Amino acid sequence: MTAAAPLLLIEDTPSLQLVYRSVLETAGHRVTTAGNAAEGLAHWRTGAPEVVLLDLMLPDRDGLSLMREMLGERPGARVVVITSNGSINKAVEAMRAGAHDFLVKPFDERRFLGAVENALRASGTAPAAPELPKAAPGAFLGSSPPMQAIYDKIASVARSMATVFITGESGTGKEIAAQTIHDLSPRAKGPFIALNCGAIPSDLLESEVFGHVRGAFTGAVSDKPGAAMAADGGTLFLDEVCEMDLALQPKLLRFLQTSAVTPVGATKPRKVDVRIVCATNRDPLEAVRRGQFREDLYYRLFVVPIHMPPLRDRGDDVIAIAELALRRIAAEEGRTFRTLDADVCDLFRSLPWPGNVRQLLNVIRNVVVLNDGPSVTMAMLPRELAGSATGPAAAAPRVDATPRGSAAPADTAATLAALIEGRTLAEIEKLVIEAAIARHGGSLPRAARALGVSPSTIYRKREGWQRP
Length: 468
Prior knowledge:
Layout: E1 6-10, H1 14-26, E2 30-34, H2 37-47, E3 51-55, H3 63-73, E4 78-84, H4 88-96, E5 101-105, H5 109-123, H6 145-157, E6 164-167, H7 174-183, E7 192-196, H8 202-210, E8 211-212, E9 224-225, H9 227-230, E10 235-239, H10 249-258, E11 260-261, E12 270-271, E13 275-280, H11 284-289, H12 295-301, E14 304-307, H13 317-333, E15 339-340, H14 342-350, H15 356-370, E16 375-376, H16 383-386, H17 410-420, H18 425-439, H19 444-451, H20 455-466
Parallel strand pairs: 1-2, 1-3, 3-4, 4-5, 6-13, 6-14, 7-10, 10-13, 15-16
Antiparallel strand pairs: 8-9, 11-12
Helix pairs in contact: 13-15, 18-19, 19-20
């Protein structure tokens, strides 16, 4: 990039200031430097820099309070904060206070210049990133206020290198959000690698993430690059990250701090350039409190949080999604469906949808496969869904399990008999699994533990249900 907008570098260590300035000027940037907060604030007010590179540890003032004062005067400015490994919590606090990105010492030249380029692009002094793409089936759809806020946040964070932590119930579109962040980022031409930490056995997870060399263990007949290496130059999406085995979490933390990958059985690390986006349908802070997730890893990952709203909070989005899915699936199945009856729309708006968009799409496919249109009526809906027409109720029926070895109460037995009457064994299995997932707040791993099966078993079965 040729010389353009000025940069302000506030760094109190003379040797680092000299190195940073040399790297920036070699890349074609104009740089003003300051060795303390007072000097930096003076340059800020007279030079109007577009981007500030700010060390958070300054001799005369806390860097975080300086950043807040700067952004109070010019909210549109971009601040990239610089901190050390021991002060990562401060960097997280800075991101929440409005910093555009952060760098953890030591960082390499490519990461440094990448953060500057992203900040300049966000400030409008470099080519703008593309607009959020129009939604299509299988991607984002909906214009409700909660989703508009999500679109705005994704468009903003996509230009940064900051780690993004996506939370939300199962089926709310966390992977779609991660893919969109990648697609709108400067890394869009690089790979997007998704890894489900809850679907891989713990003894294979390290190899899946970091790879292995030939002979590292029984069955390792050749070298295999892991997901982190495969994502070099792009984005690594760690889904269900709170299900990651505790023994692997320190290695992930080390990778995040060093950007170096050491495959299983190897002795030398390899540097990679990877942006991390992760997701969970659990409360990550609660997982920390329970000792299931390392606190230091939580703070390293939970930099820019995005919470995906459940379908029940998205108003008429449920109708837009249902009608678009209806026409698409009808075309696939050779049916004539075009719309939903008014009472079906009213029901869909009132339901809690514990499985969110994924559950809605399953309902629509069930209707299309078993019926024909042009309009979806109440009589066509799955039995457990239509039974909720008199008022809001869970779309997945509640199945209360009794302790093993004890007799079920008469009313529970009658309820179970009514639920399974006329159903095949496969339908009953699906009913029980979906009910368990709903009971555990949408968490497939927790539902799997309650049912005594592995999470990968449930993932495979749900994928099978979604096939025509």
